[in-house]
């Protein structure tokens, strides 16, 4: 019994050796000899004396992969541009976007104007970003359409601060996204009559994007088609491609930034800037950039959504992001609306007493006092008004004592405006504020 078992084991070992020899790499001359004569199953094929060049194999594999990804991306761009009437590329000038810019140029779509390029200036970008835009416009021979916050001239940060406030992003990040990103983004698509939007999102950028395909319907703009030509690229693929073709790229990559957004909340990764992309190659350890979902780690730093969750999206690519509030405040009832600066001045100069609440519909504190202020207005002894001040910062600061929201004012008959300086916002608090002026006039 023991003897039969040992013979069976020897047979299995011989068979294993035969299978291993069959799959062992062999030079061409060895393979030829294999076919010329019968080789005993007990004698494995001899391995080549030549050492396998692993690095050369990896490099060749990368070349093959890039060629496939390039052809795939160009095919998607061809569909986007030639199958639709107005393909628009919102270019954020980050690594993936400069690859797309390069491909659009190679295909002749930038020169012909078949693909339009738009850029959203948030007024909080790094100075290098708009400078880089001018560089690639000259390099590739196209002109981007720049869109910014509504009612503000392009490039005029002072005008933006006057209208919306330089600290809007601190007051309400979602409203900032709406004013500085989502609204101008949508306006740009509408102005350029886009029917297909090209963008550089990839599955490698994180779990929120892990299932995107090369084509999808955009969550904004109804049935607008969205083309993601580099959806299946990793960030390593992107930088490999930039290096291979010497593609012009954002100068902040050389200072440690894997992705570039607003200067106020974008940092290098790692923070010491030890990973950099300089002269078309990496300096330092590239893993902090190239690991899955690491490209955007330096973005939205220190920002949180209203529900307390970590912010990972600017809002442009999120369904419903164009609305940061579902409705205006005091849409019905006794609180009357002031529709313009001129109307507000008329009320102030009318010689009649009034209460004016300066508010922002997205402000949680304004929302919090909505019900009590509405009840107060129903029994108030003077007309009660609301004036939306978040888009008229300079005016409400000058005429209605407003530095933050909400601000409640009593307008006296002599035209002076007195601010309510308490955080108490119940019906009786507003009523007592009004009565204090009646007492003073007696």
TrEMBL record:
Pfam families: PAPS_reduct, Thioredoxin. Keywords: Signal. Residues 1-22 form the signal peptide. The keyword Nucleus does not apply. Residues 316-439 form the Thioredoxin domain. This is Thioredoxin domain-containing protein.
């Amino acid at each position: 019994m023991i003897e039969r078992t040992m013979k069976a084991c020897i047979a299995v070992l011989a068979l294993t050796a035969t299978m291993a020899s069959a799959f062992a790499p062999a030079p061409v001359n060895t393979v030829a000899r294999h076919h010329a004569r019968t080789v005993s199953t007990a004698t494995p094929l001899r391995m080549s004396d030549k050492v396998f060049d692993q690095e050369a194999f990896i490099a060749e594999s990368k070349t093959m992969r890039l060629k496939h990804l390039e052809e795939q991306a160009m095919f998607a761009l061809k569909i986007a541009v030639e199958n639709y009437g107005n393909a628009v590329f919102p270019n954020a000038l980050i690594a993936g976007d400069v690859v797309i810019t390069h491909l659009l140029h190679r295909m002749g779509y930038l020169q012909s104007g078949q693909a339009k390029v738009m850029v959203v200036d948030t007024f909080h970008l790094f100075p290098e970003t708009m400078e880089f835009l001018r560089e690639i416009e000259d390099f590739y021979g196209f002109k981007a359409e720049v869109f910014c916050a509504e009612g503000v001239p392009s490039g005029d940060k002072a005008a933006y601060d006057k209208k919306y406030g330089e600290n809007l992003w601190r007051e309400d990040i979602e409203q900032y996204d709406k004013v500085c990103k989502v609204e101008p983004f949508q306006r740009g698509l509408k102005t350029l009559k886009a029917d297909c939007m090209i963008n550089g999102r990839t599955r490698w950028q994180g779990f929120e994007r892990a299932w995107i395909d090369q084509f999808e319907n955009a969550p904004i703009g109804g049935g607008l088609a969205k083309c993601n030509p580099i959806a299946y690229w990793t960030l390593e693929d992107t930088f490999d491609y930039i290096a291979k073709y010497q593609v012009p790229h954002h100068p902040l990559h050389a200072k440690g930034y894997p992705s570039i957004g607003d200067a106020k909340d974008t940092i290098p990764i790692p923070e010491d800037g030890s990973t950099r992309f300089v002269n078309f190659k990496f300096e330092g350890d590239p893993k902090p950039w190239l690991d899955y979902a690491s490209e955007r780690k330096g973005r939205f730093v220190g920002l949180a959504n209203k529900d307390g969750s970590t912010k990972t999206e600017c809002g442009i690519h999120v369904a419903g992001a164009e609305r940061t509030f579902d409705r205006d405040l005091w849409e019905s009832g006794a609180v009357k609306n002031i529709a313009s600066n001129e109307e507000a001045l008329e009320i102030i100069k009318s010689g009649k007493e009034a209460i004016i609440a300066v508010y922002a519909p997205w402000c949680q504190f304004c929302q919090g006092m909505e019900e009590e202020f509405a009840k107060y207005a129903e029994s108030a002894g003077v007309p009660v008004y609301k004036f939306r001040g978040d888009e008229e910062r300079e005016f409400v600061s000058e005429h209605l004592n407003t530095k933050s929201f909400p601000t409640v004012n009593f307008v006296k008959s002599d035209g002076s405006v007195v601010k309510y300086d308490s955080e108490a916002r119940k019906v009786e608090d507003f009523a007592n504020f009004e009565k204090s002026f009646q007492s003073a006039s007696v």
